[in-house]
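cache lookup: miss for this entity combination. No prior model stored, computing from scratch. Input as submitted by user K.M.:
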Amino acid sequence: MLTTVLKRLMVAIPSLIGVVIVTFLLTRALPGDPAAYFAGPAATKEAIQEIRVKLGLDKSLPQQFVRYVRDLAQGDLGQSLTTGQPVVTEIRNRLPASAELTLLGLIVSVAIALPLGIFAAVKPNSWIDHTCRIVTTAGVSLPVFFTGLILVYVFYYLLGWAPAPLGRLDVFFSPPPSVTGFYLIDSLIAGDLSTFRAALSQIFLPALTLGIFSLAPIARMTRASMLAVLASDFVRTARASGLTSFTVIVTYAFRNAMLPVITTLGMVFSFLLGANVLVEKVFAWPGIGSYAVEALISSDFAPVQGFVLTMAIMYVLLNLLIDVLYSVIDPRVRLEA
Amino acid sequence: MSDLTLGKPAAQASGLTATLKHARYIIGENPVTGFAFGLFVLIVIAAVLGPHIVPYDPLASDTAAGLKPPSRAHWFGTDQLGRDVFSRVVSATRLDFIIAVFSVVLVFLMGGLAGVAAGFFGGWTDRIVSRIADTIMAFPLFVLAMGIVAALGNTVQNIILATAIVNFPLYARIARTEANVRREAGFVQAARLAGNGEFRILLGHILPNIMPIMIVQMSLTMGYAILNAAGLSFIGLGVRPPDAEWGIMVAEGAAFMVSGEWWVALFPGLALMIAVFCFNLLGDGLRDIVDPQRRT
């Protein structure tokens, strides 16, 4: 088991190196002179030159790269020009908000997509199969920010069921004492049910938006994979042996159909991390996505770079996790690796 | 000899009629594809003629008539500056369509050709192309597109370039696999024996053979390209106000959604959705025609 994880980790290393090189090149391609930014508008030529030397911008590209990697190894992503805070601190403070939202969105979409895909495969051409087809086709065509706005209009403006789309918690509540950084879990740990309910009502719509967005590929893959497995010989044998259809579908078919679904989850994560940025903007969610968008608008590049790097590293690690999961679910995969 | 020269066009013609027959069968069996094609024609007309046929100037503001709900004079209502939303939605088709078409053509030229070369030559070409594709795949795609547009500057050209780059791995992989299986095919060996150079075989024999699959892919990614571009404009990258573009129009209307002026964001959002829906259906239909085995 441990060797499998280590082997996968080795495969992830070239990806990580590529990610670091690309992020470095992106920052060097940025328009404008960072030294002039830091020096301010009233600086003389000599002052700018001095700062350039201090920042190491007078060195050659490879030398700058070495310096960049060294800073990175010490956990230094630079400082935000607008807030003056180190980028690492800000990303660390905001990451739980994004992670809570993304994970809940994924849970919502898996909770809807798996049953939908399974029932569609069990009863092809039934009304549930048609529903599945409509949902998957419509799901990939809906711009995620548009879904979010429609949900806000219906549930906040028309029905008044949801609170205003303004962040993680209503202003009347104070955030629960931080343990995990996830408000839903922290408020439960603190035993504060009213805060839990308030946090849930705030996160419900953005999570549903992300859920609707990522539902289509999961449902589609579940259906296709279940159809293939249900047509196979061992399912026929299981049925012929007189097992209940529940046992056949859940224990026999579903476990075997899960592998391609888990592979799809990796792709869904890539989409979710991107969609997160848009959803955070719609719901004024104080996560790292909205942090990056604010920085983009004020041409503040250190946070943008930190954000791209964080996202890419998270994505590489998630894919690693999925690969490990894969070998846990299907021991045959481990032999091939 | 005369039989041979006569036989060839006849065979070609029967091949063409067979394809047409097959296409008619697909469309007849699945009217959705026909519907998608009709929508596509409508989008092209709106993109070409849009700015000339709309009732109002899409940029002309009239603050006195701001935020009026849909009426007979303004079918889709007016936005906060009193601009006609209908005229803006229709004229925006051109910009969104241009972004989608150009990014898809660009990614075909980059990813498709690199992939074909990787699959055909193998060795170092393959290693370099695959490594580039892997590195791009290591990023969440929208985040990478954000980073590229932020770094290169806020222009429509860079949106096209960024959308093309994030789609590079997809095209490179498909083209690589397709070229790889044809590498030692009979017709390739025949062309080689006839004295054709490797590059000539690549461009003249391999590429035309994988074009149908690439065209299906292009149709399928056009929807994604529009969504990507609209998403970038929505967060303030790329297209800038007052230009009409669906993503930025939804962004401008977002603030009015919470106060009940739904029409400012709804109509451009619907236009965006319909366009993406149309490209996806069309791609699925094209795939049924080109590659009947992969029908779902």
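stored under new cache key. Residues 1-11 of chain B have pLDDT under 50 and may be disordered.
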